[in-house]
Request: fold
Amino acid sequence: MTGTSAARQPAQASEPDRRARRQGRTRPQSPDEDGAAAGGADQSPESGGDAPPARALEPGLYLLATPIGAARDITLRALDILAGADVLAAEDTRSLRRLMDIHGIALQGRPLLAYHDHNGARMRPRLLAALAEGRAVAYASEAGTPLVADPGYRLVQEAVAAGHRVSTAPGASAVLAAMTVAGLPSDRFCFLGFPPAQKAARRRFLAEIAAIPATLVLYESPKRIRELLGELVQALDGDRAAALCRELTKRHEEVIRGSLTELAEAVSGREMRGEIVLVLDRARDVAGDADAVAAALSEAMASMSLREAAEMVARAQGIPRRRAYQMALELRGGDKD
Reply:
C-alpha cells in the first residue's frame, strides 16, 4: 500500500534468490508425532531425506491449516507453501517456527510476522503491501483452520477487496474432528465458537441456540466447561445427547458421550485441562407425531415396564425421556410402575 513506509516493508529478495530457496527445501523422513514434544530435537533441513523441491508460488494470500495436536497432521501442500512463500505470517510465530523446524523447512531470512487480534490493524497494511508487490504471503492459524475462531477474517476481506488472489490449503480442524467422533447427526451442523463469558450475554446466547435445527458445536475453556454444562442442562434439556471432545489428536485425547446431564456428572469434581469442543444434538420436535409416539408406547408397555417403555421409545423417536414418560403416564391413566 502506498501509505506504508519503506522501513515496514517485508525483506526484499531477488527472483533468483527466491527460486533457489524454493528448490532447497528438504524434510525429515520421520518427524515426531507430537510437535510440542519434538520442539527441542535437532530438526535442521540438512537432517532430512530427499524431498522433492517446492513449486514456485503464484502471488497471493495462502491460508494454511495447521495441526491441532499431532505435527504429522499437516498436508504436503501446506509444507510446500511454507517452503515457497515469500512472507510468512502466523497467529503465533513460535508455534509456526516449531512446526517448520519439525518438518525441516528453513526460514532462510524470510519475514515471519505475528498477526493476531491485538495487532491486526497495524500488521494488515504490511501484509497487503507485500501482496501489492506481487509476493506470496502465507498465513497460518495457531492450530486448525484459519478464520475458524481465528483473527484472519479482516485480512482476507481486505485482500479480496484489493483484488488479490486468496487460496486455501485445507487440513486439520477441531470442529470437523469433533464432529467425526461425536456420534451425532452430521448432515447439518452450526459452529457457535465460544459462548460469551458475561452471564447475561451467556443466558441470551443459550436461549437463542436452544431451537436451532442442527447439531451444535461450541468451544469452551476447561475452567468454564462445568458451568456451561450446568447451564445447558437448564436452558436446553438435560436429556439432549452430547459429546465432550478434549485434546483431540493429542496424547490425552478423550471423548465423553451421553446426555447433557450425564456429561455434567462426568466432569463434576474433575480438573479439566486442554482444548475442549462440545457437540450437542439438535433440538428435537417434541410435538412430533404424537400418534406415532403413543402407538409405540402402547406396544412397548404391553411387554415391559412403563419406565423401560418410555426410555426405549424416547431413543427410537428422538424425543426427551421426560416427554415420553409423561405420555406413557397419560396412556396408563396416571398410574406409575
